[in-house]
Design brief:
GO terms for molecular function: alkanesulfonate monooxygenase activity. This protein is α/β, with parallel strands linked by helices. It contains 10 helices and 11 strands. The strands form 2 sheets. An 8-stranded parallel β-barrel has the order 1-2-3-5-6-7-8-11, surrounded by 6 helices.
């Protein structure tokens, strides 16, 4: 059994106003989520200023990004911005970093789409710059946390190797069946070596098919590890098994329109796993 505390995060894939986003964050907290996370995609609210609004309105949760598209930002500017958010949220920020993968979004933003190797280097540069800023007692804006939790999400060998060497939280992605997740987790453990005890393993459920399984194509329902189907009892047993067998202690759920779960059901699921 993983000795790290069991945690749940809600990734709010919510379009519309920041006020609506804050309302959804309140529901996430009431459902038992420990962390409210925001994605970083065009078409959604800008994550960093929105996290300040969420943290102000919902003081019981930590807040984070899942995940910042590192290639969108110059490293020095992002370090400044996340330090300001940490200060504004009272040290409740968890920083999720990713390489970015949607070429069309770069085109829409008027940015060049870097190569995979360049994006990987950018993630490493951001991580280093953020850690240095937070650890510097003279840095301004002054963050609350001297060492904020940094999460790296990825599926490929190079990204997971980087995460195993440097991240506090690793969100292990897989786009196939659970057997692929087992292989990816084993790879992380091998690369982490002695660091493994310092790492919190996370897994993102990108689609929930508990209240309305018709939201998920039949071909995906049982063939993709990121799909969590019902009933609640079966979903809870699967999460408990993943925690016991793989050592994953932090589970995140993508919540939004057409995601196949309602807040009361998520509350029942979290209560069942914890209880």
């Amino acid at each position: 059994m993983n000795s790290k505390p069991l945690r749940f995060g809600a990734v709010l894939c919510t379009r519309g106003s920041v006020t609506h986003l804050v309302d959804q964050a309140r529901l996430a907290a009431e459902s038992g989520c420990d962390v409210v996370l925001l994605p970083d995609h065009l078409g959604y609210s800008a994550p960093l200023p929105s996290l300040v609004a969420v943290a102000t309105a919902v003081p019981s949760v930590r807040v984070g990004t899942c995940v910042l598209n590192a290639a969108f930002y110059p490293a020095a500017l992002l370090a400044r911005d996340v330090a300001a958010v940490d200060s504004a949220t009272g040290g409740r920020l968890e920083i999720g970093l990713g390489a970015g993968y949607v070429a069309e979004e770069f085109a829409m933003a008027g940015l060049r789409f870097p190569t995979p190797a360049q994006r990987l280097r950018m993630v490493a540069e951001h991580l280093t710059r953020i850690r240095a800023a937070f650890a510097d007692p003279d840095y301004s804006p002054t963050p609350v946390q001297p060492a904020p939790p940094i999460m790296i999400g990825g599926a490929g060998d190079k990204m997971l190797a980087l995460a195993a060497a440097h991240a506090d939280i690793i969100s292990v992605l897989t786009f196939g069946p659970e057997s692929g997740l087992v292989q990816r987790v084993q790879y992380v453990k091998e690369r982490a070596g002695a660091r493994l005890d310092q790492i919190e393993l996370s897994f993102p459920f990108g689609q929930l098919a508990i209240d309305d399984p018709t939201d998920v194509p039949e071909s995906q329902l049982h063939s993709m590890a990121t799909v969590l189907d019902g009933p609640v009892e079966a979903a809870a047993e699967r999460i408990a098994r993943m925690r016991h067998e793989l050592g994953i202690s932090y589970f995140t759920f993508s919540i939004g329109e057409g995601r196949g779960v309602k807040w009361p059901t998520l509350e029942k699921l979290i209560d069942r796993v914890r209880g």
